[in-house]
Amino acid sequence: MATTVHEPPKIDLERLPSQGSGNGGWRNLVPADGDLRKVKSSPPPASTGIWVGLASITMTFAALTSALIVRHGSSYNDWWHITLPPVLYVNTLIIIASSITLEVARRRVADFMGGLKHDAGVPARWLYATLFLGLLFVAGQTFAWVQLRSQGLNLTTNITYSFFYVLTVGHAIHLTGGIGGLIRVIRKFNHFALKRSTLDATSRYWHFMGALWLYLLFLLWMKL
Amino acid sequence: MHDMSAHAAQHGAPTSFIRKHIFSLDHKVIGKQYYAMALASAIVGMILSWIMRIHLGWGSYAIPGLHLLSKTGAPGDVITPEYYLQLMTMHGTFMVFFVLTTAPFAAFGNFFLPIQTGAEDMPFPHFNMMSFWVTFTGFIVLVASFFVSDGPTLGGWTQYAPLSAAGPVGGPGEGWGVVLWATSIAFFCVGQLFGSLNFITTTLDMRCKGMSLMRLPLSAWGWFITSVMGLTAFAVLMPACILLILDHVAGTSFFVPGGLVINDQVLPHTGGSTLLWQHLFWFFGHPEVYIAIIPGMGIVSHILITNMRRPMLSHRVLIYSMASLGVLSYMVYGHHMFVSGMNPVSSLAFSFPTLVITIPSTIVVLIWTGSLYGSKLRINSASLFALGFISMFISGGISGFFLAQPSIDIMLHATYFVVGHFHLVMAVAAMFGIFAGTYFWFPKMTGRMMNDTLGKAHFWLSFVGAYAIFMPFHYLGIAGNVRRYQAFTDDYLIPLIPVHKFITIAALLTGAAQLIFVYNLFYSRFWGQPAPNDNPWEGTSLEWSTATPPPHNNFGDTMPVVYHDPYQYSVEGASADYIMQTSPEPVHSPDEEK
Predict the structure, then answer these.
(1) Residue A193 — pLDDT band, cuts 50, 70, 90?
(2) Which of these, A111, B131, B278, B352, could form a disulfide with B195 (CB 3.0-4.6 Å)?
(3) Residue A101 maps to a domain
(4) Can you tell me the distance from the alpha carbon of B461 to that of B308, in angstroms, rounded to the nearest whole number?
(5) How far apart are CA B219 and CA B386, in angstroms?
(6) Looking at CA atoms only, how far is residue B7 from chain A in angstroms?
(7) B50: pLDDT confidence band, cut at 50, 70 and 90?
(8) CB A48 to CB B5 under 8 A?
C-alpha cells in the first residue's frame, strides 16, 4: 500500500485547451474575434464514454427483465417461488458499503490532487478497502451459487433458477469489470498518473453496479 | 483540482508490423480491416446466393465440386432441401451482419468519423481494436459452422424458436450449428457495442475547435445516429443469443415450450415462450434495417452535395429525419410479427408507427430529389451509385406501404414479395451506398484513383441487374410463390419456374459484374492513377483538408479549426466555387449558423 508523502502537482491555471482534439463542446463556434481561448472545453471522453457504456448495460438488463416478465406470464404453469439465499442480503450490505468507501476515496483523492492533503496513503487505503469489499461481494455471490448447487438447485432445475443464475452471474461478470477498473485506478494512483476523469468514470460504474444489484435483488424478490 | 497527467494520452505512430497492420490502434487501419472483412463476407454471401439461385432455376443441376462443401448436404453435387435452408441462413447472416452492418458503418465510419470531426483518433483506441477483433472472431466462428458434423444452422437469419432452440432433433445444423451461430452473433454484438461506444464519444467529445454538431457532415451524422441505435439494439440481441445458447448447451427452457414434439420426440423442456425470442430478436431486428441504411443515407447525401456543388435543401431537416427514423425504428418492430398470433390490438399499435415512419423517409427522399432538381450533377461512379441508392430506396420503400398493413401482410408475409422488398430497400440500397462510398473516398484512403470507366460500367450492370433480379420477386409474391421453399412442385407454382430461371440468369450476370468492381479495387490500389491532389472532388469537409492518405494523427502538426458548416458550395462572392470548413474566409449564407 502506498503511503509516500510527496509534493502535490502544480496547478497551471493558464493552461489553454489541448492542442489536440477534444475541445469540440456542444456549440463551440469560434468567436467572431477568432480568440480560441474562449472556446469551452468539452467533457473528457471517459466521462461521456462511461455513460454510454452504462446505457448499453441498462439495455441488456432491461432485455433480461422483459424476458423474465414474459416468461413469468407464460400460460405453462412451471414457475416456482423460491427463497433467496440469505447471504445475498449480506452481499447487498457489502456492495452498499463498497460504494460508500469508494465515494470517500474519490473525495480523498480529489483533496490530494488539489493539493489540500499531502498524504497519498489515506486515499489509497480507501481504494483498497473498496477493492476488498468488491472481491468480498463476488465471493459472497459465489458462495450463494455453491450453496444452491449443493442443494441440487442449478441452472436447469426450473426456469426460476435459470433466471436467478443468468441475472446474478451477469451482474457479477459486469462487477468483475468494475474490479478491473478499480485495480487500474489504484495502479495509476500509486504511480501518480491517475486522471480525475478515470476515477470519476470508475466511480460511476461502481455505483451503477451497486444500484443495478439493488434493482436485481428487488426484481428477484418480487418475481421469484 | 486537476488531473495528475496534463494531457489525454495519445498513442504514438506504431513501428512494428503487428501494431501497424494487425493489432492496430489506428482508426484508419481498423476501418480498412472492417472493409476487408465485409468484402470477404460479401463474396461468400454472393457465392451462396448463386448456389441457391441455380438450384431454384434448375433443381436437379449438379454444381461441380459442391460436395466438397458438404458431403451430406450436397450428395452428387446437388443440394438437399435441408442444405438449401442452411445456405439461405448463412447467406442472410453473412450479408446482414458482416456486410451491411460492418461496411457502411464500421468500415467507413471508423476511417472517416474521427477525420470529419477533426479528431486525432477515437477516444478509446484499445476498445476500437477489440471491436474489430471480437467481430472478426464472430466471423470465424460463423465460417467454422460450415465444418461441424451436420453443417450450419438452417433456421434462417432470424433463428425463430422453437426450431432454433430445440437442438439436433430439429434437423441438420440445429445442434452445434445454432450454438456456433448464436456465439458468432453474440461476439458480433460485443464488437459493435465497443464500436458504438467509440463512435458516440468521438462525435460528442472529440470534435475540433469550431465543429458544432450542426457543422458535422451528413455522413458523420449518419454514423452517429447509427451508433446510438447500435448501442441499444445489439445490447438486446446479445443476451437473447446467450439465452438461446443456454437452451442448447445447459438445457434451460427460455424459448422451448413444454410438451413440444419434433420428429416424434418429446422435448424435455418446460414452458418456454417462442414469442419471447421474436420480441427480443425483432427489437434488434428492425432497428438493424436502419443500422444498415442510415449510414448509406449520410454517405449518399455527402457525395451528392459534393457533386451537385450545392447543399441539400435543408441540412437540419435531413438530420432530424434520419434521427426520427432511428427513434421510430424501435416502435415498429412488431410489424414483423403480424402473423405470429399477436393480439390484433398489438398489430394495430405496430401498424400505425409503421405507416408514420414513412413520413421521415419521404421527407429524406423529397430533400434528395428536390435538391437534385435543376442541379448540374457531376456524373462519376460515386454520384451514379448515390443516385442508384435513392432509386433502390424508393422502389423498395413503396412495397413497404403494402406490408405495413396487417391485412395485406398476412397474405404476402411468407412470399417472395417480402424478399423483393427488403432486398431492394435494405440490401441493394445499402450495397450501392457502400459502392458510392468506395469510389468517392478511395483516393483519400489509398492515394490513388479508381478507374471511372470501369466504375460506370459496374454501376449500369449492377443497377439494371438488381432490378432484373428483385422486381420479379414482387410479381412472384403476388402470385403466391412462398419463400424458403427449395423446389416448386405444386401445380400453381410450376408456371412460375421460368421467372425463377430468368432471375437466376440475372443474378449470375449481376454477380459477375461485381468482379469488375473487385478487379478495379485491387488494381487501383496498387497501380491506379495517383490522386491529383489531396482534394480531387473539390470537397469542403475536413477529410479533404488533410494529406492523402492522412498521417497517423490525421492532421499532422496543426489540428484543424472549423469556421463554416460543411457544405459551402457556390457561395456568392467567394474566391472559388467552394469554401473549405477550415477556411476563415467569411461567408454570408442563410444556412450558416449564427
Answers:
(1) confident
(2) B131
(3) yes
(4) 24
(5) 13
(6) 7
(7) very high
(8) no
* Cell reading at B5: 497527467
C-alpha cell recorded at residue B62: 449438379
Mutation target to probe the A interface, by most A beta carbons within 10 A, among B190, B209, B342 is: B209
Q: Which of A19, A30, A45 sits opposite B205 (nearest CB)?
A: A45
Q: Is residue A196 part of a domain?
A: yes
Closest approach of chain A CAs to the CA of B561, in angstroms?
8
Distance, in Å, from the CA atom of B371 to the CA atom of B368, rounded to the nearest integer, reads 5
C-alpha angle B418/B169/B58, rounded to 5°? 45
Tell me the three-class secondary structure of B527-577, residue by residue.
HCCECCCCCCCCCCCHHHCCCCCCCCCCCCCCCCECCCCCCEECCCCCCCC
pLDDT mean over B207-234: 94
Place of cell 443515407: B297
Q: Convert the pLDDT of each residue in B299-329 to its tens digit.
A: 999 999 999 999 999 999 999 999 999 999 8
B2 and A9 within 8 Å at the Cβ level: the answer is yes
* Residues belonging to chain B: 594
Cβ–Cβ under 8 Å, residues B322 and B302: no
Q: How far apart are CA B373 and CA B363, in angstroms?
A: 15
Place of cell 393480439: B343
Hey, are the CB atoms on A67 and B584 less than 8 Å from each other? no
Which residues does chain B have within 8 Å of residue A80's beta carbon, measured at their own beta carbons? none
Could you report the per-residue pLDDT of B371-400, keeping only the tens digit for each?
999 999 999 999 999 999 999 999 999 998
CA distances from B72 to B110, B146, B152, B173, B287 (A): 41, 12, 12, 12, 37
C-alpha cell at B92: 442472410
Selecting from B117, B202, B210 the residue whose C-beta is nearest the C-beta of A28 gives B210
Dihedral over Cα of B239, B245, B250, B256: its sign = positive
DSSP H or E run through B579: strand B578-579
A interface test, pick of B193, B203, B204, B337 with most A CB neighbours within 10 Å: B204
**Domain assignment present for A215:** yes
CATH of the domain at A171: 1.20.120.80
* Single pTM value for the model: 0.91
- Tell me the count of A-B CB pairs closer than 8 A: 195
- Cell numbers 434488434 correspond to B284
CA distance B322 to B319: 5
Interface test with B, best of A6, A12, A14, A21 (most B CBs within 10 A): A21
Contacts of A21 in chain B (CB under 8 A): 114, 117-121, 206-208, 559
What letters, b where the CB count within 10 A reaches 16 and e where it falls short, cover B42-76? bbbbbebbbbbbbbbbebeeebeebbebbeebbee
The C-alpha cell of A217 is what? 435483488
Complete DSSP assignment for B329-365: TTTSGGGGGTTTT--HHHHHHHHHHHHHTHHHHHHHH
Q: List, in order of start, the domains of chain B with CATH numbers.
A: 22-258+270-579 (1.20.210.10)
Is residue A54 in some structural domain? no
- DSSP per-residue letters across B235-302: HHHHHHHHHHHHHHHT---SSSPTT-EETTEE-S--S--HHHHHHHHHHHHHHHHHHHHHHHHHHHHH
Measured from the Cβ of residue B216, the count of other Cβ atoms closer than 10 Å reads 29
Q: Do B270 and A194 touch (CB under 8 A)?
A: no
A28:B201 CB<8 A: no
Residues of chain B with C-beta less than 8 angstroms from the C-beta of A66: 279-280
**Considering only alpha carbons, which residue of chain A is nearest residue B562?**
A30
Query: Where is B387: in which H helix or E strand?
Result: helix B381-403
Residue of B nearest to A42 (CA): B205
Put simply, the answer to whether B273 touches A159 (Cβ < 8 Å) is no
How many C-beta neighbours within 10 Å does residue B346 have? Answer: 14
Domains identified in chain A, total number:
1
Its domain, for residue A89, covers 84-223
